[in-house]
Specification:
Length: 206
């Protein structure tokens, strides 16, 4: 069983994907972390995010990044990740890692932007998780505060809108709902409600 969970920043897709993995006993990959690891590697070692060549080269550094590094979640790294993920060369360099994870014998849950459209087009179940930009900005502010990184709602909202535009507007694997994906709008839901709804949608597919 392969479950594809796509959606914009701070939609709740990561939390939902982890809960689905636990519920169905499947391994989980947060594919945004791959792009974030490339971004952090560039940030640390001084690569130019404006250069596709340097971004592709930074893909080799992904394995050296500690996945628990708090800096992976910082706004500066988020912003670089969103820029470098538009490069076809970067997407190609990270493709095989994601495809082979999805092809694992035990099945898998992957979350990102192009799982249902590019990485696992034949997934058993596909969810497109979304919420209004205002709700997502409020959630991100709360999440950052919980991590000891206070931020301003207005700034976060501007950043979320900019990332939405970049992720949806790019030519290479833009953020888009796969035709056969179930739409899950979590704007009016608590996280528990969203998880229950997601489990229900997946169960209806298996
Ligand atoms: O999901 P997350 O916000 O951690 O992703 C960070 C950035 O990586 C996103 O802004 C997006 O541009 C990019 N990304 C992507 N394709 C994926 C996952 C993430 O382009 N499958």
């Amino acid at each position: 069983m392969v479950i594809a969970v796509d959606g914009p920043a701070a939609s709740g897709k990561g939390t939902i994907a982890r809960a689905l993995a636990r519920h169905f006993g499947l391994p989980h990959m947060d594919t945004g972390m791959l792009y974030r690891a490339v971004a952090l590697s560039m940030f640390r070692f001084g690569g130019d995010p404006g250069s596709e060549f340097e971004a592709v080269r930074a893909c080799d550094g992904v394995a050296q990044i500690d996945p628990t590094d708090e800096e992976l979640r910082s706004e500066v790294v988020s912003s670089i990740a969103s820029r470098i993920s538009a490069y076809p060369g970067v997407r190609a360099a990270l493709l095989e890692r994601q495809r082979s994870f999805a092809a694992g014998a035990d099945g898998a849950v992957l979350d990102g932007r192009d799982i249902g459209t590019v990485i696992a087009p034949h997934a058993t179940a596909k969810l497109f998780v979304t919420a209004s930009p205002e709700v997502r900005a409020r959630r991100r502010v709360a999440e950052l505060l919980a991590r000891g990184m206070p931020s301003h709602y207005e700034d976060v909202l501007i950043d979320i809108r900019a990332r939405d535009e970049r992720d949806s507007g790019r030519e290479a694997a833009p953020l888009a709902k796969a035709e056969d994906a179930e739409l899950l709008d979590t704007s009016e839901m608590s996280i528990e409600e969203a998880i229950a709804a997601a489990i229900g949608l997946v169960e209806a597919r298996v």
